[in-house]
Design a protein that fits this description.
globular; 75 residues
Length: 75
């Protein structure tokens, strides 16, 4: 089971889970990903088995763990 989580001021919140064999679950997770990353400008990372993060520009249904977070804004 794969999952999409957001890391923000409220903590770590799981937004979606999907099974690679279930197209409906994948589509629902992709829609949440696109809303946050494409429309709202969040940063997205796939956490790989060696615990290394890889930047994602588009949804990867084969990823086991995807984290999104608001971009840091400074002044």
């Amino acid at each position: 089971m794969s999952y999409l989580s957001v890391l923000d001021k409220r903590g770590d919140t799981k937004l979606a889970t999907w099974n690679a064999a279930n197209i409906h679950e994948i589509q629902a997770a992709k829609e949440k990903f696109d809303d946050l990353v494409v429309r709202q400008g969040y940063a997205a990372y796939e956490l790989q088995p060696n615990d290394q993060g890889v930047v994602l520009r588009e949804f990867n249904p084969a990823a086991e763990r995807i984290f999104v977070m608001p971009r840091t804004v400074g002044g």
